Amino acid sequence: MTIGILGKKLGMTQLFMEDGTWIPVTVVQAGPCKVLQVKVAQASELAEDSRVGTLNRGKKRGKVERPRRADGYYSVQLGFDEKPAKSATQPEAGHAARTDSKPQRFVRELRYQELPMHKEGDEIRVGVLKEIPKVDVTGISKGRGFAGTIKRHGFHRQSRTHGNSKSHRRQGGIGRQYGTAKGVPKGKKMPGHYGVQRITVQNLDVVRIDEERNLLFLRGAVPGHRSSYVIVRQAVKRG
Fold first, then answer.
1. How many Å apart are CA 228 and CA 140, to the nearest integer?
2. Residues 70 and 90 in one domain
3. How far apart are CA 219 and CA 143, in angstroms?
4. What is the DSSP letter of 149?
5. Which of 8, 82, 118, 195 can bridge 143 by disulfide, Cβ–Cβ 3.0-4.6 Å?
6. pLDDT at position 222, please?
7. How many helices (H) and strands (E) does the chain have?
């Protein structure tokens, strides 16, 4: 079963261990998260109060009741960081009202291999990671704008002598024998937009958990800028 929680990256600091050594850590505000929806694979696994939904057939016919269908897979939809009702759309406000909660800024699904134990309306806090030594963190990397191949892909620069004029940081040949009339080869490493990509950092050690303030201290760096949203899951590769 996959255990996870949503959070916000607060920044980096350092912690001193009992033997006097210090380690760099990233502080993540993990939770509290609201369970907005629980998806199941079979209709028989639906909760009694959610087996009947409503379907709007128009103003003339009004709303009619219909049995809710199964989703075909198991997942838990979490919401993190409440936002004002005036900033939410009607679908967001209505979806949150099903669980008597406020609209959330960050909503994501966590897949499960079996029927999850959480119920709609439950609150998940950082304590769910108490017995987990390593986690995987997913976030959006920092945006760096338009970058060349040296910064974007780690290329080496060319020689600054022997007749090289104003081409020191260019990428050189791109693999076309008779020009670029047919375009650049697929997958070629070229200059372009760098950053703002979904990145997952695996096997980060859980150094400390502060349940009172919902803080999670992870050893190492986490993708994204300060106050960016992240997804913290139980590590898949627990070596």
1. 8
2. yes
3. 23
4. H
5. 195
6. 92
7. 2, 14
Global pTM value: 0.80
The verdict on residue 171 lying in a domain is no
Other CB atoms closer than 10 Å to residue 99's CB: what's the count? 18
User: Residue 91: in which H helix or E strand, if any?
Assistant: helix 90-97
- Separation of alpha carbons 236 and 4, rounded Å: 11
Region for residue 160 given its phi and psi (left: phi exceeds 0; alpha: psi -120 to 50; beta: otherwise): alpha
For residue 162, is it within any domain? no
User: Reduced to 3 states, what is the DSSP secondary structure of residue 151?
Assistant: helix
152 three-state secondary structure:
helix
Tokens of 49: 């109060």
pLDDT tens string 47-102: 665 555 555 555 545 556 666 777 788 888 899 988 888 888 888 888 888 888 88
How many of the other CB atoms lie within 10 Å of CB of 76?
Answer: 24
Task: Pick the closest to residue 117 from 48, 40, 211, 176 (CA basis).
Answer: 40
User: 5: domain range?
Assistant: 1-31+125-155+189-239
| Separation of alpha carbons 129 and 118, rounded Å | 15
CB 218 within 8 A of CB 205: yes
SS3 94: helix
How many Cα neighbours within 13 Å face the side chain of 214? 17
Measured between alpha carbons, how far is 103 from 85 in angstroms, rounded to an integer?
Answer: 7
CA angle in degrees (0–180, nearest 5) for 159-162-167: 45
